[in-house]
Amino acid sequence: MTDVRLTVLVRGRVQGVGFRYWVRGAAGDLGLRGTATNLPDGRVEVIAEGPRAACEQLLDALGSDRPPGWVGDLTHTWGTAQGLTGFRAR
Questions:
Q1: What's the predicted TM-score (pTM) here?
Q2: Domain for residue 90, yes or no?
């Protein structure tokens, strides 16, 4: 099975509340690789690579009431995995 890349821009109250570290844990539990990065405009960019089903589970979790803070809007795109390793919150 071919891995995919999921890129999600998360808008809401997602900086300064532990959101990136929650994403790192959730992604790690799903066996995904990637990053969660604070953007200057207050959003967080999540890039996750792995099986599509696991990426879809992460996307569902991001839109749920489980993450810390408040998620107001998610915008996502799908692409081809680029071979990321590990998962970093930066």
A1: 0.96
A2: no
